[in-house]
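User: Please fill in residues for this 269-position structure.
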């Protein structure tokens, strides 16, 4: 069910958000290229897109140098043609969490929902969502994006998807039982960590993100939006916010989603 959000303590960015840089802002772009000198993995993605379109990995200094040269060339061409300056495509680069917690050897993330139900007064609600898994086992060195990105649109590109699609989405109850069975004792977790510690942390992060953007909604009377929030858990059970999505996918192409999505939409309305 959807529950109301109410917290007091603010988190620091580094507590929940992987280090990120905007490539359309010159200072941030230069800071990233100055920082990224070693063998590290970064994920580069458009800031206003969905379904995994335009996402690629930067896995070594050569890939970073290629991206830097491409962006520099774009700027030079625009300046030489004496046309009005146009910023590079709005993209971000985000430090890749290369040691994620795995479920049966597969990478996963959690899609939850933030409902902004009203802006006068502000009313927010939370819905826990579901778990999204890849079709194949995780390998940080793989160049196959279906190993790294969990959304259904990307997973459909894997040849195994048609036979495994119902295994790529778990209910939160299934996830909670799995964590209780496989990780609770070995990692010293409280019982039902998913529905207690993890859920509270997702709510905290969502609220803080809302507060950061709240001033932009001050004059949007009647504003109403359902936002899809994607969280990753690393092998140390630290919770990371990967991104927040306007217009989240509401498709029901597998059994779990046919049960969950209609309920989310109904309760939202």
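Assistant: Residues filled in for all 269 positions:
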């Amino acid at each position: 069910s959807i529950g109301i959000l109410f917290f007091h303590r603010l988190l620091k960015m580094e507590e929940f958000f992987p280090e990120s840089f905007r490539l359309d802002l010159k200072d941030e772009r230069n800071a990233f290229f100055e920082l990224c000198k070693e063998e590290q993995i970064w994920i580069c993605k458009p800031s206003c897109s969905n379904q995994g379109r335009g996402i690629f990995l930067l896995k070594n200094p050569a890939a970073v140098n290629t991206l830097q040269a491409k962006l520099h060339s774009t700027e030079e061409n625009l300046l030489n043609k004496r046309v009005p300056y146009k910023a590079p495509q709005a993209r971000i680069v985000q430090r890749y969490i290369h040691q994620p917690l795995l479920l049966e050897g597969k990478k996963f993330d959690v899609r939850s929902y933030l409902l902004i139900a009203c802006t006068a007064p502000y009313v927010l609600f939370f819905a826990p969502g579901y778990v999204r898994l890849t079709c194949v086992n995780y390998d940080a060195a793989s160049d196959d994006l279906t190993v790294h990105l969990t959304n259904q649109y990307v997973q459909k590109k894997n040849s195994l998807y048609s036979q495994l699609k119902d295994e790529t989405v778990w209910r939160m109850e299934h996830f909670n039982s799995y964590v209780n069975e496989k990780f609770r004792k070995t990692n010293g977790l409280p019982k039902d960590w998913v529905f207690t510690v993890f859920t509270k942390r997702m709510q905290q992060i969502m609220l803080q993100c809302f507060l950061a953007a709240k001033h932009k909604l001050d004059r949007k009377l009647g504003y109403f939006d359902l936002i899809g929030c994607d969280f990753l858990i690393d092998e140390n059970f630290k919770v990371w916010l990967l991104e927040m999505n306007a217009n989240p996918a509401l498709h029901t192409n597998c059994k779990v989603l046919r049960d969950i999505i209609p309920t989310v939409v109904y309760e939202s309305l």
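For context: Residues 61-80 form the longest helix (20 residues).
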